[in-house]
Specification:
alpha+beta
Length: 78
């Protein structure tokens, strides 16, 4: 249904819906948010969910941003 990756731009965990489109069903969202939560809390601790699709507006995805921040600790954009 989804995969978790590290965003190449932001250096934060992100979840990507396997299917193209921007409106996943509610049960898919619940599943994807849970998978992202598992990875994000292990890697960055507290986070906020950013589902604004800036660079890829036609394929649903969401980023786990560090609490109080935007870029991950490994990003040169910090």
């Amino acid at each position: 249904m989804c995969w978790i990756a590290e965003c190449e731009i932001c250096a934060v965990p992100m979840v990507v819906w396997r299917w193209h489109g921007v409106t996943p069903p509610a049960d898919h969202l619940t599943h994807m948010h849970a998978r992202l939560r598992d990875v994000a809390t292990a890697q960055i601790g507290e986070y906020w969910l950013d589902d604004h699709m800036r660079n890829i507006p036609d394929h649903w995805h969401a980023h786990a941003r560090p609490k109080g921040g935007f870029f991950g600790p490994g990003s040169s954009l910090r």
